[in-house]
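lol ok so funny story. i was supposed to be doing the assay writeup but got distracted and ended up predicting the structure for this chain instead. priorities right. anyway since i did it might as well share w the group, maybe its usefull for someone
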Amino acid sequence: MSDAKGSDWSDCALLLCDLQNDFIHPDGAYGRGGLGTAEIATLPGRLAPLAAGLRAAGGWVVSTHFTLVPGRGGEPFISPHLKKLRPFLRKGDFTPGSWGHAQVDELGPADIAVEKVAFSAFYMSRLEWVLNRAGVRRLLAAGIVTNGGVASTVRDAAVRDFEVTLLSDGCAAFDAETHRIAVEALRPVAKIATIAEALAALG
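and the output, tada:
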């Protein structure tokens, strides 16, 4: 990949999808439920240098945070399909302001953080609004899972006329073949690059 505007990265953001403690940390909700892979666990370490490099070059780091909105008594609103898929989810998981809801320490807090309630980070959220206010038109998409939140967010970004590059080794799914298929399916709507290529473009 290359920077069409030379050294100006102020219109570019690294979009980190759902790299939260409740998804990734062994003590989080998914760790408790026995879900996780080595590829997912190593994403923060692989992405941290790019986040630091892009921020140093004047770009943005934007994180999305899957959220279970607490209802009466703190019991979370969980959609039926998710409750069936992840029966281990319980009160306190993915709660706004909680440790589990936060981005993993290895990546630290982003410049902009956006709560999301569905696969796509654009669905009923302020993401498009804040990206526009920040002057962001280019996105480097990363995070989990490739075939879920990442794919949905990338497609929604494309129809909103953002220039999207999917970092193929900056995202992961629960198995390698699902990840590979999802990356290939996104080629019509996004550029595909590696973290190393993105770092090289930063210089």
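The chain has a mean pLDDT of 96. The domain at 12-202 is CATH 3.40.50.850 (Rossmann fold).
back to the writeup now i swear
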